[in-house]
Amino acid sequence: MRNAISCDVMSQPIRRTSGRPQSGALRPRENGRQHGCRWIEPKLLERFAAEQTDAHRLASSREVWIERFGEDLLINYQREDALVPARQTLAEWCATAGLAVKRVFGRFVPRQNDDRSAPVLLEGDPSLPLTTTVQESGLVYGLDFAAGYSVGLFLDQRANRRLVAAYGTKKLLNTFAYTCSFSVVAASVGGQTVNIDLSKKSLDRGRENFELNQLGTEGHRFIADDVLDVFPRLAKRGEKFDTIILDPPTFSRGNKGRKFQVEHDMETLLMAALEVAEPKARILISTNCTRLETRELEQLARYALKLNRLGGDIHREPDLPDIPADFAARTVWLTLR
After folding, report:
1. What is the pTM of this model?
2. Can you give the pLDDT at residue 113?
3. CATH code assigned to 154-336
């Protein structure tokens, strides 16, 4: 019999019974060491339902994290030997929580981006379409489990998307827009958007997200181009935005093979954003690069303010109830004065 490992259940551990592994005990091992996994409290599912949200995290650790997308679940794992215990513990947790599941997908997360691949179906009906939809705060987003490594919605940006709505955004610049989830939120409160991404396919999915929410695309632009090439054009035309999203990938290649590395180029990106920011604009600075911490983003924001002789305030949203801060993207908001 395998040894059970205690796992924090975000303030409510599940007790071991009948000699079976604890529900909520993911047990990936590394060099003989045991690593816990934090699970949400089952009662949090009721809160998400009340918020019209069925896309969120279920469990988080360094080597395994599990996401819910409606009736589909996605197990992300960094080591092959972590998958089997994750599946077992997930089944036990879902039974305890009463969570109905149709399919379970797995996604191996290698150290190198070039080795990444789309999720694979582990459990469920293989005849079901790999495209589906989920809700977040009442808005609908399309997902595609066959489209590539990412399925279509970054769950750890939920609080920041909510803030875009709370701000009453009027004109949003969404850089590295992917499937335009921030823009859907802005459009839902009457804002206009400019969406920039190198991938035309991603922007097409963004348009589909507008359609899913019965939002017209008039007054919204979708630009398949290098963000750093578009910024000067926007500045030259005198365009200004009251909300700007900077959430670049850790590494990418732009036009003419130009390398973008967030550790080196986030400063350039922020400086360009300030050129098109309205007075009192709000700028989201975000990264999932594990080598950058929140305090470094704050330092970058202060440096940019000083260099441009601007005043501003820096804050970050409270942690999400389902995603611990150390397992989420690092984000700060810069609000100009």
Report:
1. 0.87
2. 63
3. 3.40.50.150
